[in-house]
Specification:
By secondary structure, the chain is of the alpha+beta class. The protein has four helices and six strands, in the order βααβββββαα. It holds the Pfam family AHSA1.
Length: 176
């Protein structure tokens, strides 16, 4: 059993600004998670969030590919998954104005525990790209500094949290 995620959003901002929100560790922390990211191929880094069933709250990543303002790919390993996240930026038009299309692909969910985890991550990625990421882009575009997310507990009751509770018994069994 295998599954992949692909999400696409168009933002009314220049590619350089969208790239900055993806590659600046402080901005990344405002919409995703606290991290020690550096935008260079081969850099190993972590994201930290609340632990969950079969997951210690640490996502171990490595920058495996990068083309400035076009593409960034990370390995993404935590809990029962060993996957890859790819961000692609493309030119777009939104309401007859230049914009940027962000395509996020999260691939490599192989086996039942990983596929169940993909539903949790899919809900999380979707919410972040719909709400937090555009908010960060809008603030930076206006010259303001976004506030940190408030830590992992700020989204405790989001859809991804409920899904993690639903899948907890299965994930616990498969971790044994």
């Amino acid at each position: 059993m295998k599954r992949s995620l692909q999400l696409e959003r168009i933002y009314p901002h220049p590619r350089a600004l969208v790239w900055s929100a993806l590659s600046d560790p402080e901005l990344l922390a405002t919409w995703l998670m606290p991290n020690d990211f550096v935008a260079e191929i081969g850099h190993e880094f972590t994201f930290r969030t609340d632990p969950g069933p079969g997951f210690d709250g640490i996502v171990h990543c490595k920058v495996v590919d990068m083309e400035l303002e076009r593409l960034m790919r990370w390995s993404w390993r935590g809990g029962s998954i060993d996957t890859t996240v790819t961000f692609r930026l493309e030119d777009a038009i939104l309401y007859a104005r230049p914009a940027t299309r962000l395509v996020l692909e999260h691939t490599g969910f192989d086996g039942l525990p990983a596929v169940l985890t993909s539903f949790i991550l899919g809900a999380g990625w979707g919410a972040m790209l719909r709400k937090k990421f555009p908010l960060v882009l809008d603030l930076v575009a206006r010259g303001k500094t976004p506030e940190p997310t408030g830590g992992p507990k700020a989204n405790r009751r989001a859809l991804w949290w409920w899904l993690s509770k639903l899948f907890a018994p299965i994930l616990r069994r498969s971790a044994k």
